[in-house]
Design brief:
Largest sheet: 5 strands, antiparallel
Number of strands: 5
Distance between the termini: 25 Å
Oligomer: single chain
Strand content: over 45%
Helix content: under 10%
Structural class: mainly beta
Order of helices and strands: EEEEE
């Protein structure tokens, strides 16, 4: 999905061994009705958001692998 970063929240330390970080991307593919979509990164992935800013165009994807 391609869109624009609307919000980047700070990392939350949920427990001693678990942290998460949320961000919101506005999906502009449906220009007449843009949608805000909440995403969440966990554990060591939370630092991936350090290189992004509000208003920046991004592409969000999830790679799923299986056996």
């Amino acid at each position: 999905m391609k869109g624009v970063v609307k919000v980047i929240r700070p990392t939350q330390q949920v427990s001693e061994k678990f942290s998460k970080r949320e961000f919101v991307v506005t999906d502009l593919s449906e220009a007449q009705y843009p949608q805000d979509i909440l995403f969440e990164l966990k554990q060591d992935k939370t630092s991936l958001l350090d290189n992004f800013m509000q208003g920046q165009e991004v592409e969000v994807s999830n790679i799923v692998t299986g056996k």
